[in-house]
Amino acid sequence: MSYTSFTDIKSVKELNDFLADKSYIQGTSVTQADVASYKAFQKEFPYFARWFNHIASFTEEFNTVPAAKKEPKLVSAAEEEDDEDVDLFGSDDEEEDAAAAKLREERLAEYAAKKASKGPKPAAKSIVTLDVKPWDDETNLEELLANVKGITQDGLTWGGHSWVPVGFGIKKLQINLVIEDTKVSLDDLQQLIEEDEDHVQSTDVAAMQKL
């Protein structure tokens, strides 16, 4: 199937009907058939294609654009032919293209400024439950806890903790913490905790979720 001629509106309707249950002219991915149809339509209807693509760039702002001053007047083909006989303003296509390009650039600049005015997004954070295992039942757990909480970093906040029995009289420290993902590396944090070789045997991430 090929659609490369759009000399009348009927051919446009045929393509519209053809695409009712399809995303592409042929097959399940974009091919040169799609490119050919796109270029043929754009060649036959350059101003409509330019207008359509331009208005599509405002999709996110459709609910906030100003109301129309009045309903646009639909001009018949006969009236349009009469209008084409007289050029009141002496404008040409190049001037219209330049004006449209300038307007598009202004709109894009306004949109970028609007997004920038909202400020930066909040930092991505994670809440982590960390298991810290002591060497044995004779390990001083209060010293272990103090050494763990003694680690301070920008983007690290320690939370509540508990002691969880693991057998043979040994209890592991289970502690919650909140980290800013871009500032704190869990691997580096675990390595820092495990440097307390007098108290810490190993560490494990028991749970983790994004905030």
Automatic annotation (TrEMBL):
UniProt key word Protein biosynthesis: yes
Limits of the Translation elongation factor EF1B beta/delta subunit guanine nucleotide exchange domain: 125-211
Listed SMART domains: EF-1_beta_acid, EF1_GNE
Gene Ontology MF, one: translation elongation factor activity
Protein's UniProt keywords contain DNA-binding: no
Gene3D superfamilies the record matches: 1.20.1050.130, 3.30.70.60
Domain Elongation factor 1 beta central acidic region eukaryote: 88-115
Key words, A-Z: Elongation factor, Protein biosynthesis
A Pfam family of this chain: EF1_GNE
GO cellular component term, pick one: eukaryotic translation elongation factor 1 complex
Family named by the database record: Belongs to the EF-1-beta/EF-1-delta family.
Protein known as: Putative translation elongation factor 1-beta (EF-1-beta)
Organism expressing this protein natively: Ascoidea rubescens DSM 1968
